[in-house]
From TrEMBL:
Keywords: Methyltransferase, Transferase. InterPro entries: SAM-dependent_MTases_sf, Thiol_S-MT. The lineage of its organism: Bacteria, Bacillati, Actinomycetota, Actinomycetes, Mycobacteriales. Gene3D superfamilies: Vaccinia Virus protein VP39. This is Methyltransferase type 11. One of its GO terms (molecular function) is methyltransferase activity. GO terms for biological process: methylation. SUPFAM superfamilies: S-adenosyl-L-methionine-dependent methyltransferases.
């Protein structure tokens, strides 16, 4: 049985934000999905922003989005895609517990920052992949210096409450390697000017493989 998440403030905020993404973010989304094929699991689909960027070589996308308002947007977006997309309203933990055929790839876009136990979830996602399957990720990451201090303050105060449990100071790439993936290519990108005092200015984009 699905268990939806009811977070009306974040759902409204994210719906507005996802329809006003910068060209830089859209290009990173497109790059993150380039070259995928076969059966794909997308974790935390939001409003379905990624759907239009999946290449024709993808035969099926199973998209998990537990916030019911966001899932409604994602379901509408799924009707206009080039590839078959099924939107599920389970949490990712519930979806994994329900059992599934192996996937060729898992896509995580700006979602691992909001999962309560990302290390455990990453290990479980790895188990859903066939050998040689890929994890494609586009994620907020822990900074250093003054921005790291800003991230820690944000995470300990209002940021997670306002932004759907987002924690900005997470060592996501270390978690991916710790879960048993081999990183085959990764880099970091600034998505807003470095001088702006925001905790989510930098993201990591990468490809990791299940040996």
């Amino acid at each position: 049985m699905s268990q939806t998440i009811d977070n009306p403030f974040f759902a409204k905020l994210w719906t507005v934000m996802s329809t006003h993404e910068t060209d830089a973010i859209r290009q990173l989304r497109r790059e993150n999905l380039a070259g995928l094929s076969g059966r794909v699991l997308e974790v935390g689909a939001g409003t379905g922003t990624n759907f239009e960027y999946y290449p024709d070589t993808v035969t099926e996308v199973v998209a998990v989005e537990p916030e019911r308002r966001l899932a409604e947007h994602a379901q509408r977006a799924a009707t206009a895609t080039r590839v078959p997309v099924t939107v599920r309203t389970d949490t990712v933990e519930q979806f994994m517990a329900s059992g599934s055929e192996p996937f060729d790839a898992v896509v995580c876009s700006l979602v691992l920052c909001s999962i309560e136990d990302p290390e455990t979830v990453l290990r479980q996602l790895r188990s859903l992949l066939r050998p040689g399957g890929e994890l494609r990720y586009l994620e907020h990451i822990a900074a250093t210096g003054g921005r790291a201090r800003l991230q820690k303050i944000a995470d300990a105060t209002v940021w997670p409450r306002l932004f759907g449990n987002c924690h900005t100071h997470r060592h996501t790439e270390e978690g991916i390697v710790g879960a048993g993936f081999e990183v085959a290519g990764a880099r970091r990108e600034w998505t807003i000017p470095r001088w702006l005092p925001l905790p989510v200015a930098e993201v990591a984009i990468g490809r990791a493989v299940k040996p």
